[in-house]
Amino acid sequence: MVRPPTARSAVPGVGRLGLLEPTAAASLRELGWDNVDGIPVLWSLSRAPDADLALNTLMRLRESFDDDGAGWRELDAAVRAEPALRGRLFALIGSSTAFADHLVADPPGWKLLRRKDLPDGDELRDDLLAVVNAEPEQGPNASPMLFRAGISGPEVVALLRKRYRDHLMLLAALDLAATVENEPVLPYQEVGVHLTELADAALTAALAVAVARVFENEPVPVRLAVIAMGKCGARELNYVSDVDVVFVAEPADASAARLAAEMMSVGSSAFFDVDAALRPEGKAGALVRTLDSHLTYYQRWARTWEFQALLKNRPMTGDMDLGWEYRAAVMPMVWTASEREDFVTDTRAMRRRVEDLVPAEMRERELKLGHGSLRDVEFAVQLLQLVHGRVDEKLHVPGTVEALGALAAGGYIGRDDAANLNASYEFLRLLEHRLQLQRLRRTHTLPAADDEEGLRWLARAAHMRPDGSHNAVGVLNSEIRRNTVRVRRLHAKLFYRPLLESVVRLEPDAVRLSPDAAIRQLAALGYVSPVHAIDHLKALTGGVSRKGRIQALLLPTLLEWLGDTPNPDAGLLAYRRVSEGLTDQTWFLRELRDEGAVAQRLMIVLGSSEYLPDLLINAPETIRMYADGPKGPLLLTPKAEDVARGIMTAARRYEDPKRAVAAARSLRRHELARVASADILGMLDVPSVCRALSAVWVAVLEASLAAVIRASEAQRGEPAPADFAVIGMGRLGGMELGYGSDADVLFVCDPRPGHDETAAVKWAIGIADQVQRLLGAPSTDPPLLVDAGLRPEGRNGALVRTLAAYEAYYAQWAQSWEVQALLRAHQVAGDQELGVRFLHMIDAVRYPAGGVSPEAVFEIRRIKARMDAERLPRGANPATHTKLGRGGLADIEWTVQLTQLRHAHEVPGLHNTSTLQSLAVIEETKLLDSEDVSLLRDAWLTATKARNALVLVRGKPTDQLPGPGQQLSAVARVAGWPTDDGSEFLDHYMRVTRRAKAVVERVFGES
Question: Residue 484's closest CA among 431, 528, 525?
Answer without folding.
Answer: 431
